[in-house]
Design brief:
The chain has helices spanning 5-18, 22-36, 54-72, 77-80, 82-92, 97-113, 120-138. By secondary structure, the protein is mainly alpha-helical. Helix 6 (97-113) runs antiparallel to helix 7.
Length: 142
């Protein structure tokens, strides 16, 4: 999926608005994913998955960091996320569908925290971006 110049501008605008709260957005998205899709918890048997858990917050920070890295290298997502793709495909063996689920939960998190931010165009751009990130992360499964 190719991101247009408008999509890239919209995505960068969302992350500029999120600013220093990206870690919180990442943790919130993970909490939503675990609550909505309980099967995703199987990859975190050693985590305390309760609301506000330090481990979920820590992993949320990693998720947010990866998304910020992707935004910063929006023209080279594959290069920016290559190591993360290797890790998830070869070592962790995470079910690829989980990236899509997490992307959906991240989108909901943005919408609930910034309802005025997600115009239909921005929503579509952010969704395309999150799908592109998921596609890159699952590319090495093949």
């Amino acid at each position: 999926m190719v991101l247009s110049a408008a999509d890239k501008t919209n995505v960068k605008g969302v992350f500029a608005k999120i600013g220093g709260q990206a870690d919180e957005y990442g943790a919130d998205a993970l909490e939503r994913m675990f609550a909505t899709y309980p099967a995703t918890k199987t990859y975190f048997p050693h985590f305390d998955l309760g609301k506000g858990s330090a481990q979920v917050k820590g992993h949320g920070k990693k998720v947010a960091g990866a998304l910020v890295e992707a935004v910063n290298h929006i023209d080279d997502l594959a290069g920016a996320l290559s190591k993360l793709s290797d890790l998830h495909a070869q070592k962790l063996r995470v079910d690829p569908v989980n990236f899509k689920l997490l992307g959906q939960c991240f989108l909901v998190t943005v919408a609930t925290r910034n309802p005025g931010l997600l115009t239909p165009e921005v929503h579509a751009s952010l969704d395309k971006f999150l799908c592109a990130v998921g596609t890159v992360l699952t590319a090495k499964y093949r």
